[in-house]
Amino acid sequence: MLTRDHPQDQRGAWALPWTATSQLAFDMHDTVDPVDFSKDGFNPNRRSIGLTQRPNSQGPNVDMLYRCPDPAAAQLQRMPCNEWAAGTSRDYLSAAPRSHHVGGVEVLFLDGHVGFIGNGIDELAMAYLIYIKDGQTPNPADHVF
Predict the structure, then answer these.
(1) Which residue blocks in the chain are alpha helix, DSSP H?
(2) Which of 54, 61, 122, 135 has the fewest C-beta atoms lying within 10 Å of its C-beta?
(3) 66 and 83 in contact (C-beta within 8 Å)?
């Protein structure tokens, strides 16, 4: 997990249950047509394709944080970010999984196994890997580019 040596940048803090720390955020919905998480199953909003943050993503969508100290240095450290802003197009918190591994990131799944997810994973496959109430058992190896 990549971290930044800045006290206001929470990314990489292993014990903090927040975006880009020990918790992964990966949205495939928008504010116009949000997913109803109270129902069983998962219907990804296909309008989100191309707008998500796959592993080690450098854009166009950057990590959205409460604070993005020194965005120029963050970009140079391969951790681009912007600050969350209520009521704007930046009204979401999200961050890509990041590491120094070549081509992707190592991940720990809730069933205890460890796997590798490539930077080019299909966005729908990644959404299904993360969403827990869909009844699917996707294999990330089938979707790595």
Answers:
(1) 71-76, 123-130
(2) 135
(3) yes
Residue 120, CB half-sphere, CA atoms under 13 Å: how many? 5
pLDDT tens by residue, 43-70: 677 777 777 888 888 888 888 888 888 8
d(CA 50, CA 113): 28
Give me the residue label for tokens 């496959």: 125
How do strand 104-108 and strand 114-118 relate by DSSP bridges?
antiparallel
* Cα 57 to Cα 140: distance, rounded to the nearest angstrom: 17
d(CA 108, CA 19): 16
Q: How far apart are CA 39 and CA 48, in angstroms?
A: 20
pTM over 0.90: no
